[in-house]
Every structure is written in C-alpha cells, then in structure tokens.
C-alpha cells in the first residue's frame, strides 16, 4: 500500500515495458514450421499452455515475421523445448542472419507428423495445428491444438530472464 504517498506516474514506454517484462522469467523454445517447401524456425519465449480439453497451447508471433506468414499458410507448427545446454541454438534462431541460407543443418532435426522440424537437441516438443488466431497489437496469438508431444530428456530448461539466458542452477 502507498498510504500517505501519492502514486508515482508510471512510465509507459516500450523501454519500460520491456524492462518490467524482463523481470518475469520464461522458458525458451524454438517454434518451427514448414510451408511451400521451406523449413523455418524462430526462438520464442511467449508460449503457454491453454487447455487440457482439448489440448491447446498458444504462442505469440510478431506479424512482420516470416514465421507469422508461414504458420498461417501451413496451419501447423512445433514447439521445441530447449534445455540449459541449448543457448547457442536459441541465439541462432533469434538472429535474422540465419534467413540468408537454409536454416537447418542435415542431421540436426527430423520432420514431425505435421511436417514441422523437430530439433534433435530439444528436451521435448509439442506439435500442433492452428486452432485459432487473435490479432493483438503488433503480434498474433496463435492457438494450436496439440496433435503430438514427447518429453525426450529430463534436462533442466533454458530460461530467459533480465535480457539473458540462464539455467535453474
């Protein structure tokens, strides 16, 4: 409570919003899809479960990205869960320089039932088909119905917190 004090005027800038959100730790994933003969992946931390009946997940994707275009075209995607040893993979799929060449190295993935790449190093994955979308500012919330999943290892997760990758250690 702020008894006896006047409330501070909040700074509602993009920078203050990013700073505040940076204080909330999130897991790190690589979202993948395949459309028009192209395999594509992108690091995503805005991912969550939605429902157990039916099994639904959500991911928030910036509308200006290639991922947004391809997922709406393919209507399917995978979420690859990253373990604490996968920081370099998270950084790779967050860097737009990867778009200049094929994004996936032979032998580093397999195609799942939806045709989306499943990373060999993922600690687990969920595959989904697009159940619905909701435009929200400069992003689209994509709700996916889970059609496949597997936990591959019990490795601790890679976490993003205060502008850096971390582990639970």
Describe the sheet with the most strands.
7 strands, antiparallel
The SSE order reads HEEEEEHEHEEEEEE
- CATH-wise, what's the superfamily of the domain at 26-45 and 66-126 and 150-166? Electron Transport, Fmn-binding Protein, Chain A
Assign an overall shape: globular
Strand content: 35-45%
How far the N terminus sits from the C terminus, by CA atoms, comes to: 34 Å
User: What's the architecture of the domain at 26-45 and 66-126 and 150-166, going by CATH?
Assistant: Roll
What oligomeric state do the depicted chains represent?
Answer: single chain
How many DSSP helices?
3
Number of strands: 12
What number is the mean pLDDT? 94
CATH class identity of the domain at 26-45 and 66-126 and 150-166: Mainly Beta
Radius of gyration: 17 Å
Give an overview of the whole structure.
This protein has 169 residues and is mostly beta strands. It has a domain at 26-45 and 66-126 and 150-166: Electron Transport, Fmn-binding Protein, Chain A (Pnp Oxidase, Chain A, Roll). 15% of the residues lie in helices and 44% in strands. A seven-stranded antiparallel sheet has the order 3-2-6-9-10-5-4. The protein has a three-stranded antiparallel sheet with strand order 1-11-12, with no helix packed on it. The two termini are 34 Å apart. The model has no long low-confidence stretch (mean pLDDT 94).
